[in-house]
Amino acid sequence: MSMESILVTVSPDRLREMQDLPVTPVHMAYRMGKGPHLFRVSGSAAPRGGFMFLDCRSFDGLGPTPPFCQEVLRECMARGFTGVVCDFESGRIPPLEQVVQELGNQCFRRSWTLLVPEQYGHCSPHAQVCISSALSGGTLVQRLREAQERFGRDRVVLALQRVAEDFFLPSPTGSGTPLTQEELRERIQQRQPSIFFSHELCARYFTYMSRESGAHFVLYDDASTLAKKLQVARSLDIRTVLAAWPEIADAAEELGLRRTASNRVLR
């Protein structure tokens, strides 16, 4: 399976693992700090090529944003980046909305790409909007179609997320307890459940009973469900996918990512 653009977030210490794969690295080496100012992760080598991943967890919400945007643009030009992924997951904050608006305009002028979370999609008509593949209800097809109707077909990006969650039954909040891959394997080995595939969610699931806490429902992804979600995106003409390297590293073959000597996008 091929997509026009597969963007993969990766930390500096794991960048070489992606060598020769047909993906664009999104370098998790930057953060938006107080000021605001742009900071590079301490001890990391300066990356080249690909996209910048912009983390805002240490931003206090204070200070003028135009100078910060200029810092981002200068760093992108210096490192040969052709896009920015804004990891603004802390909710809608006016200064971050201003950053998206300004970076959207500046990236558009340079033919660069800007990716933002769904809650910031309204801030710039030039930004591409990340829609998570992780669902606990409804259908993935309908979720993506609704996003296309809201933002436009060409602006929607599939944010491919590998999830594993354990839900109580009934689950009034619709939220489960996240499981690590090791915890998921332990539950499957201990319970030996019958495992099913949800065509609506494009995910696997099983149920089990606990003497202490009653009925449980476990929803999770594996390599084959991630590949199915890519198929759904492609069927809707969604041509850009964003994924995290730790979540897809063991699924690269299933996702059609094969190493070739010609794919030299890493430094």
How would you summarize this macromolecular structure in one to three sentences?
By secondary structure, the chain is an alpha/beta fold. It has helices at 66-79, 94-109, 140-151, 181-191, 223-235, 245-248; strands spanning 5-10, 24-33, 37-40, 51-55, 83-87, 113-117, 128-132, 156-160, 164-168, 177-178, 196-198, 203-210, 214-220, 240-244. The chain folds into 2 domains: 5-162 and 222-251, TIM Barrel (Alpha-Beta Barrel); 163-220, Chitinase A, domain 3.
> Judging by the overall fold, what is the CATH architecture of the largest domain?
Alpha-Beta Barrel
Low-confidence stretches: none
Distance between the termini: 26 Å
Average pLDDT, rounded to a whole number, is: 93
Radius of gyration: 19 Å
- Helix and strand run: EEEEHEHEEHEEEHEEEHEH
What does this structure look like?
The chain has 267 residues and is α/β, with parallel strands linked by helices. 26% of the residues lie in helices and 28% in strands. The chain has 6 helices and 14 strands. The strands form 2 sheets. Strands 1-2-4-5-6-7-8-14 form an 8-stranded parallel beta barrel. It has a 5-stranded antiparallel β-sheet with strand order 10-9-13-12-11, covered by helices on one side. α1 crosses α2 (94-109). The two termini are 26 Å apart.
Describe the protein's topology.
Blueprint: E1 5-10, E2 24-33, E3 37-40, E4 51-55, H1 66-79, E5 83-87, H2 94-109, E6 113-117, E7 128-132, H3 140-151, E8 156-160, E9 164-168, E10 177-178, H4 181-191, E11 196-198, E12 203-210, E13 214-220, H5 223-235, E14 240-244, H6 245-248
Parallel strand pairs: 1-2, 1-14, 2-4, 4-5, 5-6, 6-7, 7-8, 8-14
Antiparallel strand pairs: 2-3, 9-10, 9-13, 11-12, 12-13
Helix pairs in contact: 1-2
